[in-house]
UniProtKB/TrEMBL annotation:
<dbReference type="InterPro" id="IPR058548">
    <property type="entry name" value="MlaB-like_STAS"/>
</dbReference>
<dbReference type="InterPro" id="IPR002645">
    <property type="entry name" value="STAS_dom"/>
</dbReference>
<feature type="domain" description="STAS">
    <location>
        <begin position="1"/>
        <end position="90"/>
    </location>
</feature>
<dbReference type="InterPro" id="IPR052746">
    <property type="entry name" value="MlaB_ABC_Transporter"/>
</dbReference>
<dbReference type="Pfam" id="PF13466">
    <property type="entry name" value="STAS_2"/>
</dbReference>
<protein>
    <recommendedName>
        <fullName>STAS domain-containing protein</fullName>
    </recommendedName>
</protein>
<dbReference type="InterPro" id="IPR036513">
    <property type="entry name" value="STAS_dom_sf"/>
</dbReference>
Amino acid sequence: MIKLPSELAINKVEELHQQFVQELETGQPICIDINDVSKVDTATIQMLCALQKRLINSDQQITWHGESPVLFESVEQLGLTDILSFSSKI
């Protein structure tokens, strides 16, 4: 499981990308803990969308663990809830 930090900003994207690549290489399902996320920018959401697209092409998807109203609201405002498979319960 990858635990996201409280602030998801462009300066964290490369570090997160490396974590996602390492997790993808294991061949295991990708589970992301979003409980601590309190701030997010569009660069991070774009990276999450790219990861989800890559997983969907392999008949997989991100499994979200926890809740982050800030992340959900940002994704919803961008119209990406379906792409990221967010339910209205997040």
